[in-house]
Amino acid sequence: MPLLGLALALVIGLSLGLLGGGGSVLTVPIFHYVLGFGVKPSIAMSLAVVGVTSAAGALGRLRSGELSGRAVLTFAPVAMLGTFLGARLALLVPSTAQLVLFAVVMLAASVFMWRGRPADAAPPARPHVVLVALIGGLVGVLTGLVGVGGGFLIVPALVLLLGVPVKEAVGTSLGVIALNSASGFAGYWGKVDIDLRIMAAFTAIAIVGVFLGTRLGRHVSPGGLRKGFAVLLVVVSVAILFKSLLGQA
To answer: CB–CB of 178/49 below 8 Å?
Structure first.
């Protein structure tokens, strides 16, 4: 794997550890544009990388008491079903359409990252189970279709609909992303060509980044990093749209 690919894998892990999300949205463009894989294999391998890396981050958060098992069990089942169906649907969607949708999702993620996390919310009298299911299903379908983790939607849903504290919602989001990604990867398995060697190396470096990011996150204010990352997402998404719409995907 090129040195640039390894460096970018570390950046993705750092982002997940520091911010609880965001970096995973760059995994697909790295596999496609930097490492030269096709769109669908890039999405499948991205799901594996994001899933394993998020699981590693979630375990770290679980040990520190920053993960709600109840919230994971509430949010994940519908999301996992949506992710598997989204992955199977993606096999029928043209690659260019996937890239355009991916770029649009990146732009949405940049807005959420710029605005920051929601404030802690009091637990609602009755958890908004229907809304949680709808958002979980939407996040799942997007994850399967374009390979994004969806943390930028999961964290606000956990805070505002289930009353999970923000710090705990970040760890819980990593747990949900890990389960979603596993479901999506299962949907692609056997349908696209996957380079297990490169995928494993990329994942190992990203996991190192997650643990480094988790440690740094205890000493660094993520506000400025989050806004800088939001700008990066805008730049990358515009570049993907430009290439895709000109037929250069």
So the answer is: no
Q: Which residue is associated with the tokens 């899933």?
A: 51
**Cβ atoms of 58 and 195 closer than 8 Å:** no
Q: How far is CA 170 from the centre of its chain?
A: 12
DSSP state of 193: -
Question: In sequence order, which ranges of 116-195 are alpha helices (DSSP H)?
Answer: 129-146, 151-162, 166-188
Phi first, then psi: give them for residue 33, nearest 5 degrees.
-90, -30
Helix ranges restricted to H, 91-150 = 95-115, 129-146
The answer, as to whether pTM is greater than 0.85, is: no
Crossing angle of helices 95-115 and 129-146, in 10° steps, is: 130
Q: What confidence tens digit (pLDDT) does each residue in 138-167 have?
A: 888 988 988 887 777 788 788 877 778 877
What's the CA gap between 108 and 156, in Å, rounded? Answer: 14
